Amino acid sequence: MLLIYDESSRDLAGTMGIELIYKVFPDGEQYIRLPVDVSGQRVIYATRAYPGQDKSILRSMLVISALRDLGASRVGLFMPYMPYARQDRRFLDGEAISIDYIIKAFRHAGLDDLYVVDIHKPEVLERNGVGINLEPFQLYSTALTGLKNPLVLSPDVGSLWRARKLAQLLEADFDYLEKSRDRYTGEVSMKPKDISASNRDVVIIDDIIATGGTIINGIKALRGEARSIRVVAAHCLLLNEADEKIHGAGAAEIICSNSIITPHSKIDVGALMRQVMN
Description:
The chain folds into two domains: 2-134, Rossmann fold (3-Layer(aba) Sandwich); 137-267, Rossmann fold. The protein contains nine helices and 15 strands. The protein has helices at 10-13, 53-69, 98-109, 123-127, 137-143, 160-170, 213-222, 242-249, 270-277, and strands spanning 2-5, 18-19, 21-24, 30-33, 42-46, 74-78, 113-117, 132-134, 151-154, 173-181, 188-192, 201-209, 228-236, 253-257, 265-267. It has a seven-stranded mixed beta sheet with strand order 11-10-9-12-13-14-15. Strands 2-1-5-6-7-8 form a six-stranded parallel beta sheet, with helices on both faces. Residues 22-110 form the Ribose-phosphate pyrophosphokinase N-terminal domain. GO terms for molecular function: ATP binding; kinase activity; magnesium ion binding; ribose phosphate diphosphokinase activity. This is ribose-phosphate diphosphokinase.
């Protein structure tokens, strides 16, 4: 198996593979060239998709198409953060189901295997007939040390499965944060649905932190009750200084993967890629 990577994912590849020859012309158009004969080989192309999602998607399509055209026996794409994954269904009439269209475009270009890390809704891979969702929960459990009487919480019921998987590794309880609205004042509050967070080390887990609004509200609700609060997510965009706001709300630590490079990238998704390569 051969690994080809671009400059964005050089650190993920480590000593493995060969770097793609890539440049951008003055008019913004992209140029790629494969630096090795791929005929008859199984090849995985590794790339980060953020920042510059649209450019990364187009570059990936060029690489996939070239690999197929030049005779690779099987073509894979390792894209740990999958752009547009949150638009996974038609919420309003007339909307594009963005993630489906992108995966279909990759497949049309010649993709056989798609490897992502903790995609927003893993079922989109199943319905598109391609893709392996690499789970980082074991890496999280290794990074989370010194917890006393831990409780793992998801910010909503949709991510409860993530809380359950991490809790099993930590031998901890798990629950999700439930929103409630006072029918008289209209005030919205959040608390664990079934399990008290009192005097516990709490871990809030999600797949993506964009602006962090939901997590911040959850932290504020737990502050003064929990012994400590940590936040874990695979993909940390941290828009509008979200990390400062999360710390300001009372989080002791933010743990992110390096699918997107941030000061909080403590989890190496390159380890998941190397498992695939082996």
